[in-house]
UniProtKB/TrEMBL annotation, chain A:
Cofactor: Mg(2+)
EC number(s) from the headed UniProt entry: 3.6.5.2
Lineage: Eukaryota, Metazoa, Chordata, Craniata, Vertebrata
Alphabetical keyword list: Cytoplasmic vesicle, Golgi apparatus, GTP-binding, Hydrolase, Lipoprotein, Magnesium, Membrane, Metal-binding, Nucleotide-binding, Prenylation, Protein transport, Transport
Record Pfam families: Ras
Main EC class the enzyme belongs to: hydrolase
Biological processes per GO annotation: protein transport
Entry GO CC: Golgi apparatus; phagocytic vesicle membrane
Protein name per the record: Ras-related protein Rab-20
Compositionally biased region (Acidic residues): 135-146
Primary localisation category: membrane
SMART domains the record matches: RAB, RAS, RHO
From TrEMBL, chain B:
Stretches forming CHCR repeats: 566-731
Originating species: Stegastes partitus
One CC-aspect GO term: membrane
Native organism taxonomy: Eukaryota, Metazoa, Chordata, Craniata, Vertebrata
Pfam family, one: zf-Vps39_C
Assigned keywords, A-Z: Receptor
Domain called CNH: residue spans: 23-300
Any GO BP annotation: autophagy
Protein name (Swiss-Prot/TrEMBL): Transforming growth factor-beta receptor-associated protein 1
Tree of life domain: Eukaryota
Length: 261, 877
């Protein structure tokens, strides 16, 4: 937490419809657990120390109300993780209809990943958590500490998918091929050549924030992919040092009212 | 739970402002140092002097003094007021007109000759707090006009305003903020950043300004705070990037300001305070009819319609302490670390350390030891703070007093654990591991005694294995404090180690002896007795050794004597005088024997005294065994074995003395034979062996032994002697021997001797000695070997003779050759062997005519006896 003061080297943004599990994915990766979430208000960000680099990861709000903020979050992003829910076809459609245009403000060499979350609901193999640290994951951990009524959020948390209660496999509405196809269309939208871009199999993931399946792989792949971007940015900063925007103190000292009474 | 970060303090109360006039409302405020200006809806400006008053209890309040009020003559509300203190002007917006007013007199400034001091059709304006123009007597201002979709940039001087730039906007702007060249604008449907110098713009995000009042608040250099849809407070920098996560306000937010690290916002009925560090809502203050919230030089001032308040931040430390009191450690640390840049470095470090320490204790209280340790480490906690929580651990001599104000709320461990022994135990285990880790680091600098003593006490109490390691290595345990503690827990062995460490070996030994003797109970070492012996063995204090060896020997002489026998021969250890030891051991024959064996057999000390003493001791032992009615055969054999070995091997003891001691003892014939052998009375010895003991193998062995270091002639004599003894005894004339009926036996012994050791004998002499009647067949092996040997020696000597002869000829030849030329001997030339000069004419010539000293050659020849003399004398000069 104290590291929040550090200047991030690069920005990664999670986009996607509400309820697809963006916040849950980040929690799983950063805190290594799956806990109850409230629908995100506005946005939140985390700083991840990746080797010598600081990577800021923005969790955006999927709710329509905050849609307008998306472009701003994406501005200068080195990677965007477009997230959908494998049990919800609409969530994939929304990526193309609503979220893709938000990425216009991202870096020209921005990397796109397409992530189908909640794979545990459709795919038995996603129950085996696949984490890089090799530790057995507590798959069912749910921190039910929020017993007090949540007055803050205007929109109540949508109930968890019914399948997660019953434990029955749900029908998978979005296949991996659908995601790959979307990736192709995104490249076309961006005017990118499919051959010179990252292959779909490298950037199309199916994950489960609940079991941890593929979550580390997703983030670590992304970090590795943005590394060149970090290096280029550092290099540019050396060439032309820019002002430190964090330095709010400097501003106070330069006041219009000089020689104040 | 929340933090108390701010307090609302009234500054100007209703009475002072408007008395009983009910319809007067506050429209705008401006504060500049102590000067507070209030604009009202009846077109007045009120000027107050605001003084901070701190009560004796440290409570802050404000006293406002009204200096002046002035009607501006426009009958419209005063919409906005801004001070330009360097110009001594107030910039006023009233009835859509911006104009200047004198800060002191509140008189409107008339237009100067060169240009106007008024701007018309203005909806809003802002001052550039990060001006681009270097003139201190000029203020930059951004102005929104109701007529055009533009933003105008003006320079404001003492008596005039000057338009410097006008930029058009895609939509009607309704709120503006200015930083450097960057305009942050709220347009009808969105926010945008506009660089008025380059004209480049950046859309931020959509916002319906007609539906909800936009907020555009510059919060720091090139960073703005904006009201966003859904009641968010969004941060955006001049590049259009959000670098902080948004805060979550209500939809009806009216004004906002940043007072690091907090975002203070006002809505209709509340003031909300969010932390910029974790975006959390930290405090909510109820505030009715809220109207204005603005920050002036870091001071947040609020106004309702009727009165003015100051939102006074509580001292950071108070806030942090409040957080800590409610155990919100992480938040407290975030707040502390977030405030780093607002606090001078050294002050911050002190504060940060303290907070870390407090945080550590909070974790500690919750038995979260890992976190506690980490915080203690980062906070560089004086370990004694922690130790002092545990009753009685700190030594009485410690000068430590807990820091004040205290770092935690606990009186001691019992208070913390509330009687839960399990908790106490876990805390103790933690302290053990913690102290163990830090004792050799700089953390323990200056308080090693306290740390080590505490550790010792814990180890003792918890029956921890490391107690001994601690005491056996370098440590700073305080003796006075540790003694009663170790006694209490019956750690006498450990206590002894501690005494030893403090140079009190005698105390250590006394204690240990009491444990071995069973007066005290401590099962640490089952081999404590051996330990004591070892300890004495390597003690450098000889008095101590003499004092306690007695006890050790009494306990067990065989082990006890190790004190003397196992003493390592190190330089730093003083040696024991063997005579002293022998005198000391005097009464104790068992220990004495062991010690003498140590001297004679192990250290091989070549002193007659010890050897004789040992031999006598052995003998006495044997004699005492023999005197028993039914001697233990095994013991006896062993004892005799030792005696015999010594008698044989050693040649230092006094033979006569021993012989005297066993003269009458018919059981020790073998020993007597050995002694006679030592005296070279071989005939006596052999007589005993052959006639008394009739032990022929021993007799043979005797001959070999007695001649072992002698030349072959000596050995021959002995063997002849033995043969003689055999033959004499076998002669029929020798009636005595014959009577014993052993004639044949002796003859056989003689034959065997000859056949086995034929090479030793002089065959000719033997043949003369042998009785006539013996068959050749009987002596065949002996004779065969004798003939061959004599043949062999005859031929060998012939070869030697021949070789000598030829060598002699060679030398003669050399000599003749040398004789022909003179050999020079001078004082300048050195001898080839010793390199000294010659002083006399007599020299020896080596082959080749090299002159050398006579004595050098003599020396060389004696040094190498195998070498035959190669030189010939010469008298040449
Ligand atoms: N079964 C299952 N449920 C998940 C998974 N990930 C998230 N959820 C559930 O989905 C719901 C929404 O998760 P969030 O992480 O809050 O979704 P979000 O994308 O952040 O939503 P917004 O913040 O509103 O945009 C929660 O009830 C989660 O418990 C998953 O991998 N498997
Ligand atoms: Mg979310």
């Amino acid at each position: 937490m104290p590291d929040k003061m550090k200047r991030p080297d690069v920005k990664l943004v999670l986009l996607g419809d509400m309820n697809v599990g963006k916040t849950s994915l980040l929690h799983r990766y950063m805190e290594r657990k799956f806990k109850e979430t409230v629908s995100t208000v506005g946005g939140a960000f985390f700083l991840k120390q990746w080797g010598p680099y600081n990577i800021s990861i923005w969790d955006t709000a999927g709710r329509e109300q905050f849609h307008g903020l998306g472009s701003m979050y994406c501005r200068g992003a080195a990677a965007v993780i477009l997230t959908y829910d494998v049990t919800n076809w609409q969530s994939l459609a929304e990526l193309e209809e609503r979220f893709l245009s938000l990425t216009d403000t991202a870096n020209h060499d921005c990397i796109y990943a397409i992530v189908g979350n909640k794979a545990d609901l459709t795919d038995p193999k996603a129950h085996l958590s696949r984490t890089s640290d090799g530790q057995p994951e507590d798959q069912t951990e749910c921190e039910e500490e929020r017993t007090e009524p949540q007055v803050l959020s205007a929109c109540p948390t949508p109930p968890a998918s019914p399948a997660s209660l019953s434990g029955v496999m749900l029908h998978k509405q979005v296949t991996h091929e659908d995601a790959v196809a979307l990736y192709g269309r995104i490249l076309r939208y961006k005017g990118l050549d499919e051959k010179s871009s990252l292959p779909a199999e490298k950037v199309c993931f199916e994950t489960s924030a609940k079991t941890g399946y593929n979550v580390d792989a997703l983030f670590e792949t992304m970090f590795d992919l943005v590394l060149p971007s970090i290096l280029r940015k550092r290099h540019e900063n050396q060439e032309s040092p820019t002002v430190d925007l964090e330095d709010s103190q400097g501003a106070h000292s330069r006041k219009a009212r000089i020689g104040c009474c | 739970m929340s933090v108390k970060a701010f307090e609302l303090v009234p500054a100007v109360e209703r009475d002072l402002l408007m008395g009983d006039k009910a319809r007067i409302n506050i429209e705008c405020i401006e504060c500049c140092g102590k000067h507070l200006y209030v604009g009202t809806n009846d077109c007045f400006i009120h000027h107050f002097l605001l003084d901070e008053v701190t009560s004796s209890k440290g409570k802050l309040s404000y006293s406002a003094q009204k200096l002046l009020h002035k009607y501006l003559g426009l009958k419209k509300p005063v919409a906005e007021l801004r001070a330009a203190s360097a110009l001594e002007r107030l910039i006023v917006l009233c009835d859509g007109i911006v104009f200047l007013v004198d800060m002191v007199t509140l008189e409107t400034v008339p237009s100067a000759a060169g240009g106007g001091a008024k701007i018309r059709s203005v909806t809003a304006f802002c001052i550039n707090e990060n001006p681009v123009n270097g003139d201190p007597f000029c203020v930059e201002m951004g102005v929104l006009s109701s007529k055009r979709r533009t933003v105008q940039i003006y320079m404001v001087y003492e008596d005039r305003v000057q338009l410097v730039k006008e930029v058009t906007t895609p939509e009607q702007p309704c709120a503006v903020s200015l930083d450097g060249y960057f305009l942050c604008l709220a347009l009808t449907t969105q926010y945008m950043i506009l660089n008025y110098n380059t004209g480049t713009s950046q859309d931020l995000f959509p916002y319906n300004s007609e539906e909800r009042r936009p907020i555009v608040k510059r919060i720091s250099r090139e960073e703005f705070l904006l009201a966003a849809p859904g009641g968010l407070g969004m941060f955006a920098n001049a590049e259009g990037i959000s670098q902080r996560a948004p805060v979550n306000w209500s939809e009806s937010v009216i004004g906002a300001a940043v007072c690091f690290p907090y975002v203070v916002a006002l809505d209709e009925s509340f003031i909300t305070i969010h932390s910029m560090l974790d975006q959390q809502l930290k405090q909510t203050l109820s505030f009715r009819d809220g109207h204005i919230l603005q920050d002036f030089e870091g001071k947040v001032i609020l106004a309702s319609i009727k009165a003015v308040y100051v939102s006074v931040p509580l001292p950071l430390e108070r806030q942090i302490q409040d957080l800590l009191v409610s155990h919100r450690v992480e938040e407290a640390l975030i707040l502390t670390e977030g405030a780093q840049r607002n606090i001078p470095k050294d002050k911050f470090q002190i504060l940060h350390k303290r907070i870390l320490q407090q945080a550590g204790f909070i974790h500690f209280g919750q038995l979260q030891f890992l976190e506690a340790k980490e915080h203690f480490r980062k906070g560089q906690l004086d370990v004694r703070e922690l130790i002092s929580l545990y009753p009685l651990l700190l030594p009485a001599s410690s000068s430590f007093t807990r820091c004040h104000p205290p770092l935690h709320e606990f009186a001691d461990l019992n208070h913390l654990a509330q009687g839960d022994q399990e908790k106490v135990l876990r805390c103790k285990k933690f302290l053990i591991s913690y102290l163990g880790e830090v004792r050799s680091t700089e953390v323990a600098n200056g308080c090693r005694e306290d740390v080590d003593t505490a550790l010792l006490k814990l180890y003792a109490e918890q029956d921890h294995d490391s107690l001994l390691d601690l005491l056996a290595s370098d440590n700073a345990c305080v003796l006075a404090d540790s003694v009663p503690w170790l006694e209490k827990y019956h750690k006498y062995f450990a206590l002894g180690l501690l005494y030893h460490y403090h140079g009190q070996d005698s105390a250590a030994l006394q204690l240990w002896i009491r444990v071995v003797d069973g007066d005290l109970q401590d099962s640490t070492r089952s081999d404590l007795y051996e330990y004591i012996v070892d300890f004495l063995c390597s003690s450098s204090n000889l008095d101590l050794v003499w004092n306690y060896a007695d006890w050790a020997l009494r306990k067990d002489p065989t082990t006890g004597v190790h004190i003397f026998t196992k003493r390592p021969g190190r330089k730093d250890l003083p040696e024991l005088n063997p005579d002293d030891v022998i005198t000391y051991l005097g009464k104790d024959s068992q220990a004495l024997i062991l010690y003498l064996e140590h001297l004679v057999l192990e250290r091989r000390i070549q002193k007659e005294k010890f050897h004789t003493h040992l031999a006598v001791m052995y003998l006495e032992k044997v004699l005492s065994l023999l005197s028993e009615s039914s001697p233990d055969e095994v013991q006896l054999t062993e004892a005799r074995g030792r005696l015999q070995a010594l008698l044989r091997e050693s040649s230092l003891y006094r033979v006569q003395l021993l012989l005297g001691k066993m003269e009458n003892c018919e059981q020790l014939l073998l020993e007597r034979a050995t002694l006679h052998g030592k005296l070279e009375e071989h005939d006596k010895a052999l007589h005993i062996l052959v006639h008394k003991l009739r032990d022929f193998p021993s007799a043979e062995a005797f001959c070999i032994w007695a001649s072992s270091c002698r030349d072959s002639e000596y050995r021959q004599q002995l063997f002849h002697l033995l043969l003689g003894v055999y033959l004499d005894g076998s002669l029929p004339a020798n009636a005595q021997a014959a009577a014993r009926g052993g004639t044949g036996e002796l003859e056989m012994a003689a034959v065997d001797l000859l056949n086995r050791h034929g090479e030793v004998f002089d065959a000719v002499q033997v043949l003369r000695m042998l009785p006539e009647g013996w068959s050749l067949q009987l002596l065949r092996p002996f004779l065969g070997r004798a003939v061959r040997a004599s043949m062999h020696s005859c031929r060998t000597s012939q070869i030697a003779l021949g070789l000598a002869h030829s060598e002699n000829l060679q030398l003669l030849h050399d000599r003749l050759k040398e004789r022909k030329k003179p050999i020079f001997v001078s004082k300048k030339k050195g001898c080839h062997l010793c390199h000294n000069t010659f002083s006399e004419p007599a020299v020896v010539c080596l082959p080749g005519g090299v002159p050398v000293h006579t004595h050098c050659v003599a020396q060389r020849v004696t040094d190498s006896p195998t070498k035959r003399q190669l030189t010939n004398s010469s008298n040449h000069t």
